[in-house]
Design a protein that fits this description.
It is a single chain. By secondary structure, the protein is α+β, with helices and mostly antiparallel strands. The protein has 2 domains: 1-43; 47-83, no CATH class. It is built from 1 helix and 2 strands; from the N terminus they run αββ. A two-stranded antiparallel sheet has the order 1-2. The longest helix has 41 residues, at 2-42. The relative contact order is 0.13. The mean pLDDT is 82.
Length: 83
Amino acid sequence: MKFRTLKILRARRNARKRIQTTEKAVQALIIGLALALILLAGCSYRMIPYETQIEYGTTDTDSKNNKLQEKKFITQKWRWKND
């Protein structure tokens, strides 16, 4: 009787380990599929320039040199476009 109980307990422990391993594999599979879905859905969008501003001019900034400095700025706004 004593050995039979040990065999049953050992079988239960092995079954629990198998179930935990299976659960981890299923979780990894679900996470992998979710990432693949996100990456595939993200590929249907692309970024395009929405608005571009160019500013230029001269400023008198340095009193030591008495020279004019040129200012140039380019700013660009982007947005997502669905293909």
